[in-house]
Amino acid sequence: MNRYIVALMMAPMWLATACATTPATVEPPPTTGTLLQPGIYRVADGAEVPAEVFFDDLEQAKIVYVGETHDNAAHHMVQTAVLEELSRRAPGKVGLGMEMFHRPFQSVLDDYARSQIDEETMLERAEYEERWGFDFGFYRPMMTLMRLQGSPIAALNAPKELTRKISREGLDALNEAEKAQIPPSFHEDNPPHREMFKQAMGSFHHGMDEATFERFYHAQVMWDSTMAMSAVQCFERHPQLARLVVVAGMYHVQQGLGIPFHVEKQAGFEGRIVIPAQFGGEEPVYAEDIIGSDAGDYIWVYELPEGSQPSVDNPHEG
């Protein structure tokens, strides 16, 4: 069996290792300015949290959001570990929500999760390469686990044709069928998110006029609110679910301003946000940069074993 697939009859190796090396009590926060070592830290105060305590808390949430940089192997290892352990604790009652697939292809993921089609057919029918294109090997362990347990996989993303039209032509250009796809929380006021988006756009598009900014921002809100709606609807379609693990780009989950904001507005579901980080990567994580911030609930600093990488296919730089 692939070493990234959870063994349902026993704790996976990464958890056994974490529990063996992590004290049973919460450690005091690291000194401000120090490099965060591999481990799981509470963002609010920087305390290092034992794996069991971490997962016990995640089980209090309806949705667990785990961000990613799309081509970062360590981030995907954290996502896989979170899904594995939550699924081990509640087999068949934990679903997976994925930014990587668009809503019109939900039936394809349903067929795959029910073992009615194989992986190759699923990727072809979902137009994965054309619409996402990042290494499927990063996501294979998570999707295979859902398939083995017969658990649902939710296609979260808005059709790119719709978000592209909004960014280029604006909301007024939408026809009635397209307007019907606007989620109920789309028009909710979210000033911190608008400011975060403005700062991000300013880094790439200096001198952008207000009308252009509004089109781009509406496309972003459509993106986030649609993924939230898809997550909420997954529970409606699968009432046996205890929780959903949502994997999406960091921007969509950090600070709770994207998908989590819209989930709360649409359904009031409690969530937890996990920020993955790579130890020894190109961007070291220092306590002063993350501790005490509103980035999320936890940061998991993960060190890839030397010489090891998940099985990936045709790397993209994206």
Q: How is the quaternary structure best described?
A: single chain
- Domain count: the total is 1
Helix content: 40-55%
What is the CATH architecture term? 3-Layer(aba) Sandwich
And the CATH topology? Answer: Rossmann fold
The average pLDDT score comes to 88
Helix vs. strand class: alpha/beta
In terms of DSSP E residues, the strand content is: 5-15%
In DSSP terms (H or I, runs of 4 or more residues), the helix count works out at 14
The neighbouring-strand order within the major sheet is 1-7-6-2-5-3-4
Q: How far is it from the N-terminal to the C-terminal residue, by CA?
A: 30 Å
Shape: globular
Q: How does the major sheet shape up?
A: 7 strands, mixed
Record field, number of beta strands = 7
Question: Gyration radius, to the nearest Å?
Answer: 19 Å
CATH class: Alpha Beta
H/E topology pattern: HEHEHEHHHHEHHHHEHHEHE
Q: What are the segments in which pLDDT stays under 50 over at least 5 consecutive residues?
A: 1-24, 310-318
Summarize the structure.
The chain has 318 residues and is an alpha/beta fold. The chain has helices at residues 13-21, 51-58, 73-89, 106-113, 119-125, 128-131, 140-149, 160-169, 176-179, 191-202, 210-237, 250-253, 259-267, 287-290, and strands at residues 39-42, 63-68, 94-102, 153-157, 243-249, 271-278, 298-302. It has a single domain (51-285), classed as Rossmann fold.
Write up this protein.
The structure is a single chain. This protein has 318 residues and is of the alpha/beta class. The chain has a single domain, classed as 3-Layer(aba) Sandwich (Rossmann fold). The chain contains 14 helices and 7 strands. It has helices at residues 13-21, 51-58, 73-89, 106-113, 119-125, 128-131, 140-149, 160-169, 176-179, 191-202, 210-237, 250-253, 259-267, 287-290; strands at 39-42, 63-68, 94-102, 153-157, 243-249, 271-278, 298-302. Strand 6 (271-278), helix 14 and strand 7 form a beta-alpha-beta unit. The longest helix is centred in the last third of the chain and has 28 residues, at 210-237. The protein is globular, with a radius of gyration of 19 Å.
